[in-house]
Amino acid sequence: MRFQKLIQSSGALLLCALSLATAQAATGGEPAALIQVDVASCLAATAADDMDKVATACAAVIDNEKTAKGDLVKALIARAALYARHDQIDRAIADDSRALSLDPTLADIFNARGELWLKKGDKPKAVQDFGATLKIDPNHEKAKANHKAMAREIERIGAQMAVAGKPSFNCARARRAVEKAICGNRELADLDREIYGSHLRVLREAQSPAETRKIQREQDDFIARRNAGYGRPGFDLKKAMQDRLQQINGVDGY
Hints:
The protein is mainly α and 254 residues long. 74% of the residues lie in helices and 0% in strands. The protein contains twelve helices and no strands. The protein starts with a helix and ends in a 5-residue tail after the last helix. The chain has two domains: 39-163, Serine Threonine Protein Phosphatase 5, Tetratricopeptide repeat, CATH 1.25.40; 171-249, no CATH class.
């Protein structure tokens, strides 16, 4: 009799526990199991380059707060790559940035975002991302090539900025009116420096001493005409300098 009562009591407890679990599920309590979000359709749509399907399939994964972190990163990376292929650079950067905020160890994504910054013309941010890639993976070949190219470009830009508005001669020693005019005008100063640089180039390329002397004579004649003509009615210093630059470099520029 006591055994029968024990069974009845245990059954009541089990029924109560099941009822409680059902009530919790119905009223927003702990779910019986985690809902799995399918990332496969998003990845398939991006692989097929189907923008229409991506808009819904990837959004269903990315905008679902129950998506597992790993699947969310995969979906963001896939959609970013598709956006990049279709030149939707800002959207691609946004997805890559979110993926990197979730997992800052993704060397390939830092490099990919760096290339996107480069397309936007933001070279400092591009260099920063290429550098971040190399911190994670010092042997990342694409990032090494990108970083090296950008370092050279930034160095070149820095060198140009350092001499911008400065002629080929020392303005502190300028005595002639034409020299002072060149020093006082950034555009003329840049033209003078370009003329001088191009002149040095053709001198280096000269095939014989006679050709070298001829090139130097032409430059000396130009400077003499420039000095004598400046200040006279009808003399256009800027045009004279532009003509000389074109004469040195040829019609095609170089």
